[in-house]
DNA sequence: AGGAATGTTCTTAT
DNA sequence: TATAAGAACATTCC
């Protein structure tokens, strides 16, 4: 899933492949994937080129420049939903499946925005801070301080799992990362925020940093995480341990990992290490 | 009333 | 075919 670590990898990929090449054409299979009209996207971007990137949480912003000076900045916003990806390729023979939006560059290469499930979006904005405010997107998971996280959690009265999934609390955590963070911090996913101690919030903050930096270090290749991560009990695509009984138990205490639903999302946790 | 919490829906490959 | 997901939107709560 494209949560913060994956989007960071995509950002670096775009930076190293797609900058400073004028856009000659843009192909869009389904206009519903755009948050602006196709003609606006096309007329605004053709002739311009990408100059750099920014990432806040799961959001990727691509800065652009162009031949004619414009009054306002033109920034491409990308959100990868649950299955989004990027692919830079040359020959149309190499065009990946589900590359439903394609930027064709003057040098003959293409950047494909891959969206198998159509939960992904591309749009145009001119001001990143204004966009973040409008969408209520909080501090990035890698940048948030302990006091900022504490302040955010203290102002909410709900179960900790949905609170951490909420992008206004901290930006970039999705379903599996929140489970992993709660597991590493030994906090039950259904613990109410009112009942969290300052120390537990500190553990959550530490765990967020640990999980995010680990995932980025391994370029979001889950199989490379050490065995003390909960990720290995999940049934993600291509998991080498999928359905292997030996990996359905807590790597710390050996208790069978529980599977439930919290906040409408599938949740895994250790009933022994994470108690209410 | 109204902001916050909680629930539903969209979408489609596997 | 039942399932999974992020976020927008809808509804309920206090």
Automatic annotation (TrEMBL):
GO MF terms here are: damaged DNA binding; DNA-(apurinic or apyrimidinic site) endonuclease activity; lyase activity; oxidized purine nucleobase lesion DNA N-glycosylase activity; zinc ion binding
Domain FPG-type, residue spans = 243-275
Among Pfam families, the record links this protein to: Fapy_DNA_glyco (PF01149), H2TH (PF06831), zf-FPG_IleRS (PF06827)
Keyword Acetylation (UniProt): no
A single GO BP term for this record reads:
base-excision repair
CC cofactor: Zn(2+)
In the record, the note on similarity to other proteins reads: Belongs to the FPG family.
Q: What is this protein called?
A: Formamidopyrimidine-DNA glycosylase
Organism in which the protein naturally occurs: Larkinella arboricola
């Amino acid at each position: 899933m494209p949560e913060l670590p994956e989007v960071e990898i995509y950002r670096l990929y775009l930076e190293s492949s797609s900058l400073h090449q004028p856009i000659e054409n843009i192909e869009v299979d389904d206009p519903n994937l755009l948050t602006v009209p196709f003609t606006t996207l096309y007329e605004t971007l053709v002739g311009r080129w990408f100059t750099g990137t920014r990432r806040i949480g799961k959001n990727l912003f691509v800065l652009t420049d162009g031949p004619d000076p414009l009054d306002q900045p033109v920034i491409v916003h990308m959100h990868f939903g649950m299955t989004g990806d990027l692919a830079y390729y040359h020959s149309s023979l190499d065009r990946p499946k589900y590359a439903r939006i394609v930027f064709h560059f003057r040098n003959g290469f293409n950047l494909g925005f891959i969206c198998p499930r159509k939960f992904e979006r591309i749009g145009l904005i001119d001001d990143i801070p204004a966009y973040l405010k409008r969408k209520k997107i909080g501090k990035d998971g890698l940048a948030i301080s302990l006091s900022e996280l504490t302040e955010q959690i203290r102002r909410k009265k709900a179960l900790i799992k949905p609170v951490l999934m909420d992008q206004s609390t901290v930006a970039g955590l999705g379903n599996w990362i929140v489970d992993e963070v709660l597991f590493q911090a030994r906090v039950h996913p259904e613990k109410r925020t009112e009942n969290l101690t300052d120390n537990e919030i500190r553990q959550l903050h530490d765990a967020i940093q640990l999980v995010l930096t680990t995932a980025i270090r391994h370029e979001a290749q889950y199989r490379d995480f050490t065995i003390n991560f909960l990720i290995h009990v999940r049934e993600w695509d291509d998991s080498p341990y999928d359905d292997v009984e030996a990996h359905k138990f807590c790597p710390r205490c050996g208790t069978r990992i529980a599977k439930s639903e919290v906040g409408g999302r599938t949740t895994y946790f250790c009933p022994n290490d994470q108690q209410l």
